[in-house]
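Appendix B.2, paired examples.
Example (i):
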Amino acid sequence: MRKSKNKKTKTCRHEWVVFSTALQDVCLLVECVKCGLFGTVDDPTEEEWSEAFDAAENPYLWTDQSRVTVRGVPAIRHVVKNPDISDSENTLG
């Protein structure tokens, strides 16, 4: 993963929320609820890894700022309705 050089990292008082895990990188995925930056908590303990297992359904606040590595801003998601399929098939879920 690449580190971000975004100026927001210096001006925002980040509030990180764990929202998922990255199996291949073995890290926790976090997002700042204030500015939208993404980060990781690298080398989580077994307890932290277990706690994050259901973070996709139950995100939670991460308070140890010193362990977060800022990675970058989220990509803008652009969804377009496909007119050739029914409304019930035009969902993201």
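Example (ii):
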Amino acid sequence: MSATKRRMNSMSTHTAREGGQVMSALRFLNSQDEFDRAIAGGRLSADPTSPLYAGHYMYMGTRDNGESLFKHTITRQYLSKAGR
């Protein structure tokens, strides 16, 4: 993928639904960077034995307020702001 296309993808926005409610527009940033930030901030873990192991979550986008959303790959539940 070209650098221009990656930049365009990272700036794309759309309106999404969470639990049937319309959320604010989401931006799609570099998912690896967002996972790294979530691990560094304690929302997710790099430890495969942790219930917050990053490998069990998918990046769903970043809200306008800067909050990145992660969804569990099996339960489909969103990670809370506190990470628990």
